[in-house]
């Protein structure tokens, strides 16, 4: 299915263009309409968490942002650039690979499965992409990586291999690895789901530190309500491809108004 071709007058004003914006996004898999004319925005520096039942479309939103999937209709904007199109003068034309590469460069992602390179040291895991993609010198990349390993509390593990670390420590390396590319936006997909319960707190602490010490924009999908409450400034409750309620964590968790939010929280808390 072709995407819509937005006219030049649809371009948002530059000063409001940073962060993430979904405009009327429709995503289908066959007959299954997963996102129905979805509109939402995440402002620069904002930390937004998506909650809601399994199958409601949360991960699809992250996969669209990573250009692992394509919209059927509507436009996704990342830092003022439409994902599916690029500017040519005042016109928008379909994006080429170079454009997608550039837009994706602003986005870091951490998954449920940490996917570290098992045969490389922790330091090497964090420096590979900065050296090969950003063309940093090995020394610059090492310095950046050591700073980030300190930030995630693993300054003393630089020479260890992933198999020598706990799951929680591996996930903290994966967070450092994503941050080493200095993305403006960090996408987090169920980053604590694969961890034993006693390891979750360490990862949440790190994300809380990153949230307070950097102005990175975060969009998170989680089943961990503690995470949503502690790390985000805004929570979006999702059901059947639409936002049914949104607000501060205090509002959503203490005084949810929508029946579906109430039922969902009742089931998970
Ligand atoms: P959530 O993250 O909220 O659990 P998902 O975004 O993973 O939801 O999935 C939303 C819906 O899209 C589900 O019905 C799922 O089966 C469907 N879906 C997701 N990815 C694919 C795919 N690659 N092919 C077909 N259906 C998919």
Structure notes:
Belongs to the ABC transporter superfamily. Residues 20-265 form the ABC transporter domain. It is a peripheral membrane protein. It is found in: Cell membrane. InterPro entries: AAA+_ATPase, ABC_ATPase_HisP-typ, ABC_transporter-like_ATP-bd, ABC_transporter-like_CS, Ectoine_EhuA, MetN_ABC_transporter-like, P-loop_NTPase. This protein has 269 residues and is of the alpha/beta class. Helices cover 35% and strands 25% of the residues. It has nine helices and twelve strands. The chain has helices at residues 58-65, 97-104, 122-132, 138-151, 167-179, 197-213, 225-231, 249-254, 259-268, and strands at residues 20-29, 32-42, 47-51, 73-78, 81-82, 85-88, 91-94, 107-110, 185-189, 217-221, 234-239, 242-247. A six-stranded mixed beta sheet has the order 8-9-10-3-11-12, with helices on both faces. Helix 3 crosses helix 4, helix 3 packs parallel to helix 5 and helix 5 (167-179) packs parallel to helix 6 (197-213). The protein is globular. Residues 1-9 have low confidence and may be disordered. The structure holds adenosine-5'-diphosphate. Adenosine-5'-diphosphate binds next to strand 2 and helix 1.
């Amino acid at each position: 299915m072709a995407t819509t071709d937005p006219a030049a007058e649809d371009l948002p004003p530059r000063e409001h263009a940073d962060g993430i914006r979904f405009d009327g996004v429709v995503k289908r898999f066959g007959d299954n309409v997963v996102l129905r004319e979805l509109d939402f925005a995440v402002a620069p520096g904002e930390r937004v968490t998506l909650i809601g039942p399994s199958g409601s479309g949360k991960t699809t939103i992250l996969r669209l942002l990573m250009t692992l999937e394509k919209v059927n209709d509507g436009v996704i904007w990342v830092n003022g650039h439409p994902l599916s199109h690029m500017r040519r003068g005042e016109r928008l034309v379909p994006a080429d690979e170079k454009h997608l590469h550039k837009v994706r460069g602003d986005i870091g992602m951490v998954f449920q499965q940490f996917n570290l390179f098992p045969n490389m040291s922790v330091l090497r895991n964090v420096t590979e992409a900065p050296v090969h993609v950003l063309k940093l010198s090995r020394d610059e990349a090492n310095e950046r990586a050591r700073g980030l390993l300190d930030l995630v509390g693993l300054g003393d593990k630089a020479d260890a291999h992933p198999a020598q670390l706990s799951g929680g420590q591996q996930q903290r390396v994966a967070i450092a690895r994503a941050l080493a590319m200095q993305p403006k936006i960090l996408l987090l997909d169920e980053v604590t789901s694969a961890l034993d319960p006693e390891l979750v707190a360490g990862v949440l602490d790190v994300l809380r530190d990153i949230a307070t010490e950097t102005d990175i924009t975060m969009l998170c999908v989680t089943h961990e309500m503690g995470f949503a409450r502690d790390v985000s400034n805004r929570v979006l409750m999702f059901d059947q491809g639409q936002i049914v309620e949104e607000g501060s964590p205090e509002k959503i968790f203490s005084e949810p108004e929508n029946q579906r939010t109430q039922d969902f929280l009742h089931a998970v808390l």
